[in-house]
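ESCALATION

Customer reports they have been waiting on this structure for their group meeting. Please prioritize. Original submission:
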Amino acid sequence: MVKRGSIAIAGLGAIGAKVARVLDSGAIPGLALAAVSGRDLGRTRRFAESLQTAPLTEATEALARHAEIVVDCAPSGVFAGLARSAVEAGRVLVTVNAGALLQHLDLVERAKATGGRIVVPTGALLGLDAVRAAAEGTIDRVTMITRKPPKGLEGAPYLVQHGISLEGLDAPKCVFKGTAGDGARGFPANVNVAAALSLAGIGPERTTLEIWADPTVDRNIHRIEVDSDSARLVLQIENVPSEENPRTGKITALSVIACLRGLVAPLKVGS
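Update from on-call: job pushed to the front of the queue and completed.
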């Protein structure tokens, strides 16, 4: 039987390692790190042993055996197995891979049957509370425009498939315009924010996304425009890229930490 407030983390990159260290420090009363997994078993064990209280080192799909809450900070390629194991066990799955979740929305229905929950933190975005509130009424349009330094987009499947090179780029270039659903498939490591926005609002096929490779910026910039019968929203966030992974903003790990704190805090601000 797993302990109440026990946490397992999949993925120990820029996001997962930060979350693990905060949990290990005892900074979130009521939550404790029980298990971790990573692509490199040796590195994962060394990381676990570097903590004050070493968690178990487990295979990704076995994490749900050891924790009440499974935190997915792993590459999107392992999402399906990890998420299904957590949902089938009736756990709370906290995932930063909103784009991968779009491809496996059957898990939401399955969670209803098993008693599991799927939680998507705000991540590198802003305004999801307001978008969710507007979606209780009628939303007519949601548009998101993302600008990233070229190195933050390098290697994206969409760019590779369409032969789009960003080498030597000296002016902003629109590399994608379409639906959030197509954007999440083409840029799985870059636009989980667009997937999260679509889940909060009017869905991935009605949410419009533009992605710009912009050598004039040094931050990951997301601008959201929403027209609804209750409000017009115009929001912009400029995220400092993580040193470990320029595709990820520093605020993403902090968002996961804030999300976990909200699960156990006596006061939670925001819907």
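Sent to customer with the following note: The two ends are 31 Å apart (CA to CA).
Escalation resolved.
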